[in-house]
Amino acid sequence: MENPEQSNPATLEGTTPPLTDDTMRRKAIDTAFDYRGDVTLTTSGGNAYKGYLYNRDDSASEPYAMMMLKAGGEQKIIYADITALTFSGKDPAAGKTWESWLKRYAEKKLKGEAANIESENLED
After folding, report:
1. Is 70 exceeded by the pLDDT of residue 43?
2. Considering only 85-89, 112-116, 119-123, which range has the smallest mean pLDDT?
């Protein structure tokens, strides 16, 4: 699911995987379910839903995904209706490994800058 226009190769942020068949659609939805940021699902009716994918059931007679919408509320979307999926929201954990944090902390200390254990702002 790589996208040459992706700004940060360590995350899926900004990518739109191909949904050429049911297998690829299910794989993309499973990946979106594990993604920590918002996704945008576009349906065959032309509607685009942006939010956090918090549940899915691919064993139902009509497999579906459930989203907490960015605009409020929630939406059930049938897999077969999904024509596009974009990892549209910031992945708040991208680049936030323990090793990355230690490296940034040490670099700040060596420069004489204030280095603390406070978390970074995760909002866009």
Report:
1. yes
2. 119-123
Cα–Cα distance, 44 to 49 (Å, whole number): 12
Give domain status of residue 121, yes or no.
Answer: no
CATH label of the domain that carries residue 77: 2.30.30.100
CB 56 within 8 Å of CB 66: yes
The percent of residues above 70 in pLDDT, for the chain, comes to: 84
What's the DSSP call for residue 114? -
Supply the pLDDT for residue 103: 84
Residue 35 in domain? yes
- Helix (H/G/I), strand (E/B), else coil: 8: coil
Phi and psi angles of residue 79, each rounded to the nearest 5 degrees, phi first: -50, -45
The boundaries of the domain holding residue 73 are: 22-86
CA distances from 45 to 41, 66, 77, 82, 84 (A): 11, 17, 11, 9, 12
How many alpha carbons lie under 13 Å from residue 23 in its C-beta half-sphere? 0
Give the pair of three-digit tokens for residue 9: 């190769």
Number of domains in the chain: 1
